[in-house]
Design goal:
The chain is an alpha/beta fold and about 190 residues long. The protein has helices at about 45-50, 70-75, 90-100, 135-140, 165-170, and strands at about 15-20, 25-30, 60, 80-85, 105-110, 120-125, 145-160, 175-180, 185-190. Helices cover about 25% and strands about 35% of the residues. The strands form 2 sheets. The protein has a 7-stranded mixed sheet with strand order 5-4-3-6-7-9-8, with helices on both faces. Strands 1-2 form a two-stranded antiparallel sheet.
């Protein structure tokens, strides 16, 4: 079975445009088969974006998909955003969506951190839970290596997909705060200290 976190998407392309609005920021985004949440912004990502605060400096949107997180952050906070994903179709859509929404972001194709260079003030993600617990924990623990001192890892995880155990795991490496809980979705802020 093909997943949105595979490098090459074999499903037939069917590009559609969706419009989303978050805190007076309106984005028009192209989506397609073979990418996460192709029908529009999913509830978990919406909750994450609505709860972000004090985003300044360099930002990494890891697992960016077609770009809603990175593009929103660039537009709302005027931050310097790097977006990355393994999925080639997602990368292509993210580049088109950057242009469509008139923001300046860098897009990198990368399997997790393999092509990521530098350090960031914030790493923001709706992580691909279905990659499995071992890879998920690696993705989140390894973020520490790419965060500046006192940098923040922002993420959203559903209670039914192991949010409580994930928080305990993050507490081994970060100062963790649950920012919000909404319909089973945990918005988590993990500070690198």
């Amino acid at each position: 079975m093909e997943h949105y976190y595979t490098k090459e998407t074999k499903s037939k392309s069917n590009i559609k445009k969706v419009t989303i609005k978050i805190k007076n920021i309106v984005l028009e985004l192209l989506t397609d088969n073979g990418v996460f949440s192709k029908k529009g912004l999913d509830f978990g990502t919406r909750c994450l974006l609505e709860n972000l605060s004090d985003i300044k400096g360099d930002v990494l949107d890891i697992g960016c998909g077609y770009g809603p997180i990175g593009i929103y952050v660039a537009k709302r906070y005027n931050a310097k955003v790097t977006m990355s994903d393994i999925n080639q179709r997602a990368i292509s859509l993210a580049k088109k969506n950057i242009y469509l929404n008139k923001v300046d972001c860098e897009v990198i194709q990368s399997d997790m951190y393999e092509n990521i260079i530098g350090s960031y003030d914030h790493i923001i993600t709706n992580p691909p839970i279905r990659i499995g617990k071992e890879k998920l924990y690696y993705l989140l623990k390894e973020a520490k290596q790419y965060l500046k001192p006192n940098g923040n890892l922002w993420l959203v995880v559903n209670k039914n997909q192991g949010a409580k155990s994930l928080v305990k795991e993050l507490e081994k490496d970060y100062l963790v705060q649950i920012i919000d809980k909404n319909k089973g979705f945990y918005i988590i802020l993990a500070r690198n200290c």
